Amino acid sequence: MDNNTTFKAADYKNPQPVRWCPGCGDHAILNSLHKAMARLGVPPYKTAVISGIGCSSRLPYYMATYGFHTIHGRAAAIATGFKTANPEMTVWQISGDGDGLAIGGNHFIHAVRRNVDINMLLFNNKIYGLTKGQYSPTSDRGFVSKSSPYGTTEDPFIPAELVFGARGNFFARSIDVELATTEEVLAAAAEHKGTSVVEILQNCVIFNNGIHNPITDREVRADRTILLRHGQKMVFGKEGEKGLVRDGFYLKAVTIGEDGYTMDDVLVHDAHTPSNFLHQQLAMMDGKELPLALGVIRDVASPVYNEEVEAQIADIRARKGYSTLRDMVLAGNTWTIE
To answer: pTM, whole model, 2 decimals?
Structure first.
């Protein structure tokens, strides 16, 4: 919080018109981000929004903060450099599934591995929207698009799997139409020290309309998704009548009160346990046999890259006596050429 100043969502909004297609899920995400920033209370002048290329990457234009619309796939690299040089800033990185996981995939996993203190928002609509409808790294096998007219012959990335493979310490998920959940997880992501990754299932009304409907349709959403909160039972369903239990090494969805299962059998979510074994299982649920997990799935403290770099520089300066770069360059053996 900036002293006694209270911020509103409008304080983070740029007045220029938002140029996304009517009905695009990006509108809802932008709205949730403005609200999350107001909840956090970090002043706009201490906030930077950095993006790559794609429909989602236009978002910095609609923020009354510092912003940088960078180049394709390089948002994570630029956000890393910016945060390391400006540790007092809160940094948000905006990428789509193409920008973030195709050309930017290597930057994505290494930012997660390094645990840079940035908030990575991954808008996942399973399509290249800006370039007009080619399949993306998250498109399902067999998906028909302009660049795969007979269906893709590839298996997709699952963003959560990449995060855990890169030893990530924060992963959350939401849906564009779940504004309150999105605001909640974005605020949690910003409060986490280190790299936070928030996957948001987003609908492209023009090139991939309804791709998430089997999970997000209002008629089925309660039964096919589960909102996880730390310290609370893992229950779901329209009446909260279903729960997740252990079945050996695996998870199982049951109806509470049937087949001998009671509320005591239902697991309690622990987002802070260092072990990522259960977190991975929760993140990999897909809304079919087991409900798709929403909310903060993993939130674990770990050394932060930019803080470690800053501490290392301070230590070396103290031990070596350097106060400037020139001092360091001229230290040791030097020669004067006449």
So the answer is: 0.94
